[in-house]
Design goal:
This protein has 508 residues and is α+β, with helices and mostly antiparallel strands. It has a single domain, classed as Cytochrome p450. Helix content is 50%, strand content 8%. It is built from 17 helices and 11 strands. The longest helix has 32 residues. It is globular. About 3% of the residues have low confidence.
């Protein structure tokens, strides 16, 4: 029986049309179920960018109260999600950690971090793993930190004696300048086998200014990052300033490396961190480090290693000066455990529960990084029933989590006692308890988490144990902050100090 060609063509067309229609409808159904998380509509073209203002961490916290713990914002041409509660942070940084292990492209990574050749902004892959491994083994890990215990003690000795001299002269101590000077020298001893600054003065103050400028500029929401087609216009002038700052940093790092190379014979058999890193530029393994990688890593260590810990210590001292009863209680604990005949030692810290509680309370209320460094989704995913597209930027509002009244009782109060008993007693800031994640969590948790905690506890403990702290006459204690990658005090803390130990305790 012959088949009518016309009928056959019609049947085939109908079948094809059926499957096309079915696929199209199914696609529409899938799209309709792909609901983005709630969030503000924003403006045409620029999206929610104008809504953020000068204090994005505060604005995003307020928006989260309206739109929920997982919030979507259209930022220019980019999608961004913000996690604002411990559960939301856990979902992104633990459950979906691998999918959010990369950084989105941004001007800071390009112009400051040698085009993402560093550890902070590098893609999650072999080079990042090598940089992280070397840093942990030789500087940031537990064994490495033990190896340079004496370096920290010596540099703190220099600092407390300088503070005694300021006290004798009746001069106030500018806390962030003092801390940056001491911490840069600690890091310099480990990386370069020498103090970076022999005397405190214009050179160390310029270094502090460069660190603050880098942290501030890298934290700004740059329009060009979210609307790449107009990035060349540099509407905010940010990229131009970044390029100038990069030249200053590159000149400083180049000088450090040249001077270090000239003294290589003196370190024969006793390699420092830079010697170890440089050895990995010549190895025969598949993954090698370039000189640019080395410079970029040094930039990470000198900036994040000084500024983040310094800001936490400064905030802790300011809170104790504002609440003298807390300072007195810390003194009482230290006098009982240590006495006044010697300086605090790192081995004393496990016995100082109240000091550790003060540090945790500062991490909670004044996290050094208010918004975690942005991550970006490798693939589309779902969270809490919401659809998260591929290439969506993730921001975890660590500042908001620390001030969430659903998590913390009276969150605006500075109350170290909250960590001494009850449900918060075992909370730890190392990235496993999402109520307190000042260093982030997951694969991209801050590489210097362990070092940061050691520096904050030891330096803050030494400063509290060694001195009485007072607000200079005729001044007021300003507790305002200013936004950046690190949460700086808007007005640097200036204080009068008075030694409280026996004179011989300051000689070591």
């Amino acid at each position: 029986m012959a088949v009518d060609p016309y009928l056959l063509r019609e049947l085939l067309s109908a079948v094809i049309l059926f499957f096309i229609t079915r696929y199209f409808i199914a696609s529409l159904v899938r799209r309709s179920t792909r609901t983005l998380p709630p969030g503000p509509k924003g403006w045409p073209v620029v999206g929610a960018l104008p809504l953020l203002g000068s204090m994005p961490h505060v604005t995003l916290a307020k928006l989260a109260q309206k739109y929920g713990p997982v919030m979507h914002l259209k930022m220019g041409t980019c999608d961004m999600v913000v996690a604002s509660t411990p559960d939301a942070a856990r979902a992104f940084l633990k459950t979906l950690d691998l999918n959010f292990s990369n950084r989105p492209p941004n001007a800071g990574a390009t112009h400051l971090a040698y085009n993402s050749q560093d550890m902070v902004f590098a893609d999650y892959g072999p080079r990042w793993k090598l940089l992280r491994k070397l840093s942990n083994l030789h500087m940031l890990g537990g064994k490495a930190l033990e190896d340079w215990t004496q370096v920290r003690a010596v540099e703190l000795g220099h600092m407390v004696r300088a503070m005694c001299e300021s006290s004798r002269k009746g001069e106030p101590v500018v806390v962030p300048e003092m801390l940056t000077y001491a911490m840069a020298n600690m890091i310099g001893q480990v990386i370069l086998s020498r103090r970076v600054f022999v005397t405190k003065g214009s050179e160390s103050n310029e270094f502090k200014d460069m660190v603050v400028e880098l942290m501030t500029s890298a934290g700004i929401f740059n329009i060009g990052d979210f609307i790449p087609s107009i990035a060349w216009m540099d509407l905010q002038g940010i990229e131009g300033e970044m390029k100038k700052l990069h030249k200053r940093w590159d000149a400083l790092l180049t000088k450090m490396m040249q001077e270090h190379a000239e003294t290589a014979p003196q370190r024969k058999g006793k390699p420092d961190f830079l010697d170890v890193i440089m050895a990995n530029t010549d190895n025969s393994e598949a993954e090698k480090l370039s000189l640019t990688n080395v410079k970029a890593l040094l930039l990470n260590l000198f900036t994040a290693g000084t500024d983040t810990s310094s800001s936490v210590i400064e905030w802790a001292l300011a809170e104790m000066m504002k609440n003298p009863s807390i300072l007195n209680k810390a003194h009482e604990e230290m006098d009982k455990v240590i006495g006044r005949d010697r300086r605090l030692e790192e081995s004393d810290i496990p016995k100082l529960a109240y000091l550790q509680a003060i540090c945790k309370e500062t991490f909670r209320k004044h996290p050094s990084t208010p918004l975690n460094l942005p991550r970006v989704s490798t693939q589309a995913c779902e969270i809490n029933g919401y659809y998260i597209p591929k290439d969506t930027r993730l921001s975890v509002n660590i500042w908001a989590i620390g001030r969430d009244p659903q998590v913390w009782e009276n969150p605006l109060d500075f109350t170290p006692e909250r960590f001494l008993s009850g449900k918060n007693a075992k909370i730890d800031p190392r990235g496993n308890d999402f109520e307190l994640i000042p260093f982030g969590a997951g694969r991209r948790i801050c590489a210097g988490t362990r070092m940061g905690i050691v520096l904050v506890e030891y330096i803050l403990g030494t400063l509290v144990h060694s001195f009485e702290w007072m607000i200079p006459n005729g001044t007021e204690l300003n507790m305002d902050d200013t936004f950046g990658l690190a949460l700086q005090k808007a007005v640097p803390l200036s204080a009068m100090v008075r030694p409280r130990l026996t004179p011989t305790a300051y000689l070591s």
